[in-house]
Amino acid sequence: MNLASYPNANRAAAISAFDARFGEMERVLWCLSVNARAGLLAGVHSPVPEALVWTIKSWWGVQGVRSATKTQMARALESMTWSPDLFGPMPGDGPDPARYAYDCVAELVGRSVSLGVPRREYSLASKVLHWLMPWRIPVYDSFVRSMLGVPASWDHPRAYRKVTAEIFAMTQAMTGDLEWIGPQEPRSPLRALDKLIWWVGGGSTGTATEVREPGYILRELGLDCH
To answer: How many secondary structure helices (H) and strands (E) does the chain include?
Structure first.
């Protein structure tokens, strides 16, 4: 599906409908993302990255992930090199965005495996890094692969390399008025494109779980993002 040529009004309607159903869940995930930064920048352990990993896994149905993964992947995140600029948009003169996204996800997958995660969790790693760096990392899962026509037989590294190339090509073609991405933070074209792919690809008629009181996670961690 060529979403680059999808009319802005249609994109806006899909994003609005998605946010009406899942907006409060998105707010909680963004709150966790923002509050994870301090520990990552300092290179110290914090319960927030662990909560972010497991919340993404639980809410968005990443299958086959063992409970120990939340701690192991959080430790892997904390061992990576972080700087404040990574949490905002990538500058126009920065590295190739598709290559950068692929390298980041591959690094997190590799570090997680070295800490005991038994599988190469490309889907979970991409989603966690997407929420931490929503202007830089596209989401990867079987749904995105199907929508972009990536063969199911391809191994994760090859498939994710193709996904990053396709997604960034779409965002570069979506020039002009970006009001269609809506007011929900993070106001990132990559975040909006992930919503759009999911919604128009059948998610609107699916049975995705809507968490009725997602703020319980923030209360447990003592976070206030209002």
So the answer is: 9, 0
